[in-house]
Amino acid sequence: MPGEPHSAAASGPSLVLVLNSGSSSVKYQLLDMRDRSRLASGLVERIGERISLVRHTPLASGGKTRERTGPVADHDAALKAMAEELALDGLGLDSPELAAIGHRVVHGGMHFTEPTVVDDAVLAEIERLIPVAPLHNPANLTGIRTAMALRPDLPQVAVFDTAFHTTMPESAARYAIDVETADAHRVRRYGFHGTSHAYVSRETARLLGKAPEDVNVIVLHLGNGASASAVRGGRCVDTSMGLTPLEGLVMGTRSGDMDPAVIFHLMRVGEMSADEIDTLLNKKSGLVGLCGDNDMREIRRRVDAGDEQAKLAFDIYIHRLKKYIGAYYAVLGRVDAVAFTAGVGENAAPVREAAVAGLTELGLEVDAERNGARGDGPRLISPRGARVAVAVVPTDEEMEIATQTYALAGKRN
């Protein structure tokens, strides 16, 4: 099953390169799936600009991070720069130990429900989905095509952010609009951050000493982008993001849930264009729109200093988060754990405390000492003997992509 190592690949090549290609950046990690260790990680950013940055860290040897600047014209040049850095560590892209390359692809629609080996038909379908993911799928495609040109002999595996959420029932996935219009334009709830939700829900079950199919989990992926999911027995039954990543929780720069008529109001009364409203809701809303900051550390500093605007932003953020916890409790019926993950979820103890405050009747509370303690791995922050476990589970999307890629590459060997 996706997310579990596949033994068929164990005797062959064991390295997996994970690529996350953005419009002007490429993030990468090289992993050895025999022991799930990281050998190297890096970033090429500001692609196409006059001065680009290449940052590479050889993790296996404990080497120091290397940085260099200079023009990187396009994604082809970016991947070649990555290959040069890997080669300096003896881990070149031409290594016979490389089993496959895994690619993060943001939108797979309803067509892709699991990791998929890329061929011409897959490329065409990802391209066909560009209208519902115009900021992400084009960059993902560029990375895949470039990697295919550099290593045409290797399996290139697409791992989709939306795949984990394709198990949602139609009652959760459908919007209440005219069915023919919705189907004609693929308007439905897809959800995102799927690799994170899959990984964290499974790791939460492991933390509880249970099998994923025996556990109901509410996963709260709280970073600059934020999403919640209701996971019943290892399968997603609801999630907060929708057609796009704009729906749902209050985020760093995104509004989350909002009356759709606000858009018409801004067009008619504010005389704003569709593009201006798109920019407003995606880049100038959320926490940054409410108080001018989207860094939760700075917001908490301001709250502690008595800043009323920051306090209001924090309260709105928590109010929305608490509503989703309650809603997904109702959807699941029985909740075994609530898991906080991603940058804010893993590091902001005040967010975790506030999110479950007042929910003791639902069995939800945190232990102040446990919640305030720092830790690197999965850990419980609820009181001992609590009816519902509250956990901090660090996400690892790269490992999830590598695991799914390696499993699929193993099946082909």
What's this entry about, in short?
This protein is an alpha/beta fold and 413 residues long. It contains 15 helices and 14 strands. The strands form two sheets. The protein has an eight-stranded mixed beta sheet, sandwiched between helices. A six-stranded mixed beta sheet has the order 11-10-9-12-14-13, with helices on both faces.
Sketch the major β-sheet.
Answer: 8 strands, mixed
Uncertain segments? 1-9
Shape category: globular
> What is the helix content?
25-40%
| Span of the ends, CA to CA | 16 Å
Number of helical elements: 15
Number of strands: 14
> How are the strands ordered across the major sheet?
5-4-3-2-1-6-8-7
Which class do the helix and strand fractions yield?
Answer: alpha/beta
Mean pLDDT: 92
Radius of gyration: 22 Å
Strand content: 15-25%
Description of the structure:
By secondary structure, this protein is an alpha/beta fold. Helices cover 37% and strands 20% of the residues. Helix 1 packs across helix 3 (137-150), helix 10 packs across helix 11 (308-332) and helix 11 packs across helix 13 (349-356). The longest helix is centred in the C-terminal third of the chain and has 25 residues, at 308-332. It is globular and about 55 Å long. It starts with 14 loop residues before the first strand and ends with a helix. Mean pLDDT is 92; it is low at 1-9.
Properties at a glance:
413 residues, disordered N terminus, six-stranded mixed sheet, eight-stranded mixed sheet, 14 strands, single chain, 15 helices, globular, alpha/beta
